[in-house]
Amino acid sequence: MNDPQHPALPAAATVRRRSLLAACSAHAVHDGLTDVIYVLLPIWQAQFAMSYAQIGLLRGAYSAMMAGCQLLAGRAARRWGRERLLVGGTALAGLAYLLVGQATGLSMLLLALLLGGLGASTQHPLASSLISDTHEAAGGVKQALAQYNFAGDIGKTLIPGLVGLLLTLISWRASVTLIGLLGLAAALLLWWLIPPRSSTSALREKNLKASRGQGSASGLRALILTGTLDSAVRMGFLTFLPFLLKAKGAGTAGIGLALTLLFIGGAFGKLLCGYLGVRIGMMKTVWLTEFSTASLIVLALFLPYGGLMLMLPLLGLALNGTSSVLYGAVPDLAGADKREQAFSLFYTGTIGGGALAPILFGSLGDFTGIPLAVMALAVTLLLTLPLSWYVQRGLDADARSLRHAG
Fold first, then answer.
1. Which residue, among 229, 234, 232, has the nearest Cα to 357 in the 3D structure?
2. What distance in Å separates the CA atoms of residue 74 and residue 122, rounded to the nearest whole number?
3. What is the set of domains in the chain, with CATH numbers?
4. pLDDT, tens digit, for every residue of 67-88?
């Protein structure tokens, strides 16, 4: 609604819209570039005669670089500018795939993937804080972060699928070159889409002066631990799911269909649970999704193949939905001037937990068998329930300090 008393409102709405579109585009492209590695690993193994340990090194190097450099990305953004660093990181990720297309062996692939992980490290903390700073004044930050989270899953689905199709038509080198060009095109799009720094800074200053508390350091720590456990269980279950399905009689096609059903439910869970968190609150939503996830994980052990397939979209919705609620709480627990650092810490924890979980729970599965390891996943997830209560205390304390300040 146009109001002559507030001529800046249309401009602010435009800044919010362009910031959200830029962040969602960045998330979709970066997550797609990250997950396309799974499609390429078998091809690289055959092309360069690699061992499984070398294949694991390639995937781990990308993830480790992406997780380890997020804190550096948050600090660098304060010095060189968030928008400039996000565009540069996206361009670097694209250039990395152009280098992959020229690789002649393990060393060059490893270097290219390290560069790609470095570029990818900028996306999560900077795009998330861009949304928070531009949407908070309008009261829609949690819904916007849910849309941002949903966009990442769209990228994970479309880009690896596109590469899988391209590989039936052209060589893998040509395919990854096209993906690299996509990354460069995305960087140009972000350079055009991201509003000028003066516009985002104006909204940021407005947020600093508006109704904001000082955050809660203890609540943020509990939130990071909650997100780490949630991510660990998610990655651990994804590791065991194909073996559960195989034990129930599923073939390769059935396992692929099952994962698709799970991911479709997960994508919509990220979108829907972000909105649910706004309506009923963070703690109630986390309790609902995490208890449901733990129950459905246990149920997956006992259901026959057909019943498990029918249940997977609902499991995906609960399994992935929690993350949107947790992302949405980060801006509330971090001071408005510490968001890049807070998002960096949060994503470092969640990505690190997701990377370690398959190793830890896989080792447990070797000793106890898959059923008991899956039970351990469900029990681990229940630890998030008291943690989310502690997070809610931090949110409530911040809200009280805000009322007193007002």
1. 232
2. 8
3. 9-208 (1.20.1250.20), 217-405 (1.20.1250.20)
4. 888 888 878 887 888 888 999 9
